Amino acid sequence: MTGWEPDVLPGYRQRPLALGADPDGEGELVATLVCRGEPPHRGGERAVLLVHGYTDYFFHTELADHLAGRGFTVYALDLPKCGRSRREGQTPHFTSDLAHYDTALRAALDVIGSTDTLVYGHSAGGLIVTLWLDRLRRRNATGPISGLVLNSPFFDLHGPAILRTPPTSAALMALARFRRTQVVRKPTPGGYGTSLHRDYHGEFEYNLEWKPVGGFPVTFGWINAVRRAQKRLHRGLDVGVPSLILRSDHSVTEAGDPDLIQRGDAVLDVTQIARWAGCVGNRLTVVPIPDAKHDVFLSLAQPRSVAYRELDTWLDGYLRTGPTTTSPQQTSPQTG
């Protein structure tokens, strides 16, 4: 399990990363590192590592092509129990602690071998990598990581305020201890997923077994792990590198009008992302994208083009400064 092999995506290669026994007792863990094109033979190139969210895996070749056009060697990581990495008998996307992903992320960096790596995280992946970078900074181990891009990060629980109260958190912790793989939310009939896939109302093609239209079931153990991570974020972090957050400018109801789902975040409350964005660190740019979906780079053509333009504007500064200087010019975080 050490070499590169052809990936399911034409023109890509993949490398399974053996991670040892699952701390949650579901067998041996594997993560899968994917590379656009042939992996370079040396590690000095500027690289980007893409990390997906819940009910997701790497398939977004348009984003990869765009980043490659900006001079990055593009890698993506399918986390353990997700997409390419899920093995028989494993609960999809399940972990009882988001810090368990640190081993997979470290293994990916070791294989990439770049001295200048930009990290990208979407949704739950955005939460995962943000806390990971904070842990690395506190150990003075940020190493090759020189920037962070977050796409609609999962910074708080969407829904009624009672879900975020201390009594609810305590109850969730108790349920997670004894019923960690019990389902708290079943897959939906469609909603956001139907706005993405080409077989429904979207324009993208991907594996519906790895990314079901209605999502994977959400378990008590996983949501408790997310809630603990969010509470840590809310106390304030410092990822130690220049950061960009892209999000939609408004949220929509997933069960509402199919046309509205095409033009708003149907998964998270964007006001929560705005509220907690400042907890990431000091060198931060936040950009709302009008009419963007939850994944801003899977939006309709017009908001998607705006998202790429805003990414490029930030990258212009990031690429100019390089890993050894302080930071690119930053704008003040937006709060609405």
UniProtKB/TrEMBL annotation:
Protein name, per record: Alpha/beta hydrolase
Organism: Mycolicibacterium diernhoferi
UniProt keywords, alphabetically: Hydrolase
Coiled coil ranges: none
GO molecular function terms listed in the Swiss-Prot or TrEMBL record: hydrolase activity
Residues of the Serine aminopeptidase S33 domain: 46-249
Record flagged with keyword Acetylation: no
InterPro entries associated with the record: AB_hydrolase_fold, Hydrolase_4, MAG_DAG_Lipase
Pfam families according to UniProt: Hydrolase_4 (PF12146)
